[in-house]
Structure formats: C-alpha cells, structure tokens
C-alpha cells in the first residue's frame, strides 16, 4: 500500500505518467524513465495508429484517460474508445457516467478514479471500492485531511504530483454567453 512518505524514507523510482499530446509522448520516449504505467489522453489515443499503439503497449503498461464531461454526443466517442482499447489494462475515469459505461460494456481492465471523482471522506472511499479498483487523491485536500480518509486497502491509490490544473471545465459555451460564439465544435482552451 502506498502511503505518504516521511522525509527519511526511500522514494520509489517508478512513475505513473499521463500525456495528452504527441509532443509529450515523443519527449517521454526520447529518454529512459522508470515508468510503471502510461496514461494516454483519449483524443491522443484515438489518433494513434494501430502500430503506434502496439509499440507503446510493448514498452509500457497503458491506460486511457477518459473524457471529463460525458453528454449524449460523447457516447459515440466512448464507443469508439472502447472498441479500440480492448487490450488496454487501465481506464482513468473522471466521472461516474464513464464508470457505468465501462461496467455495462464489460471492461476487463482496472478502473481508476481520477481526482475529479472526488473521494473526500471515508464514506466516499468505501463507495468507490465497490465500483473501481483504484483512486487518485483529491488535490484540494491537505496532508492532514488526506490522512483522515480511511481508504480500503484493496483500492490502489495514486496522488497527483505535478500538473497544470484547469480552473474551470464546462460543457457550456462561454463565448456564447458573451455573444461571441464561433459555432465551432472543437475543444477550446481559454486563457
């Protein structure tokens, strides 16, 4: 079981890494890192060729990061992901809808709940044990609050160490709210 490390404890050298672009993937592939698991963003995974996926699968234990927001239109993407990812061992999910989708489809790998599923107390940790095999601790909690959560020993545990976190994620069009929507269906990052 992974626990919070005291300063005198030996640190592990195997990492779980998530990439969302080809540039990040190439940078990762250019050096030898002790990577335990590699998560690919769903959009990146869908654009990879079968040969690229096989090559990555030989080098790493692969997982897919599923979409954060799932609406009716997104189920087509989930279907496509599921069909292409039969050999993938891990699904990093960001919402309960995706967990239910994967369970209904008979996903054979392990479901890991991302920090956005929000395991905020011992009760939620116990409930997540019933529907997933692992969790990522929420980023909002401090060390004292994290240590108060009684996470079942059967649940695999992860903690986010370094990332750029979005301030807000919405399915709504913010530009439309300000009367400037360009009617594009593309994902857009606003700074």
Task: Map the helices and strands.
Elements: E1 15-19, H1 22-29, E2 35-41, H2 42-47, H3 50-59, E3 62-65, H4 74-84, E4 90-93, H5 96-105, E5 110-113, H6 122-131, E6 134-136, H7 143-148, E7 156-158, H8 174-177
Parallel strand pairs: 1-2, 2-3, 3-4, 4-5, 5-6, 6-7
Characterise this structure.
Strands 1-2-3-4-5-6-7 form a seven-stranded parallel sheet. It starts with 14 loop residues before the first strand and ends in a 14-residue tail after the last helix. The chain has about 190 residues and is of the alpha/beta class.
Q: What is the structure about, briefly put?
A:
The protein has 191 residues and is α/β, with parallel strands linked by helices. The chain contains 8 helices and 7 strands; from the N terminus they run βαβααβαβαβαβαβα. Strands 1-2-3-4-5-6-7 form a 7-stranded parallel β-sheet.
Helix count from the secondary structure assignment: 8
Q: How far from one another are the termini?
A: 39 Å
Helix share, percent: 25-40%
Quaternary assembly = single chain
């Amino acid at each position: 079981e992974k626990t919070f490390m005291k300063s005198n404890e030996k640190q592990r050298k195997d990492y779980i890494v998530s990439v969302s672009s080809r540039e990040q993937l190439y940078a990762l592939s250019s050096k030898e890192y002790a990577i335990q698991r590699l998560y690919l963003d769903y959009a990146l995974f869908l654009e990879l060729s079968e040969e690229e996926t096989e090559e990555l699968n030989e080098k790493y234990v692969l997982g897919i990061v599923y979409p954060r927001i799932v609406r009716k239109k997104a189920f087509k993407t989930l279907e496509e992901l599921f069909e292409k990812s039969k050999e993938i061992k891990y699904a990093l999910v960001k919402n309960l809808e995706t967990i239910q989708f994967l369970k209904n489809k008979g996903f054979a790998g392990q479901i890991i709940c991302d920090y956005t599923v929000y395991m905020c107390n011992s009760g939620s940790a116990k409930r997540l044990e019933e529907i997933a095999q692992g969790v990522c601790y929420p980023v909002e909690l401090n060390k004292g609050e994290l240590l108060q959560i009684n996470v079942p020993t059967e649940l695999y545990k992860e903690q986010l160490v370094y990332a750029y976190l979005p301030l807000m994620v919405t399915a709504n069009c913010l530009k439309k709210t300000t009367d400037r929507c360009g009617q594009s269906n593309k994902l857009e990052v606003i700074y």
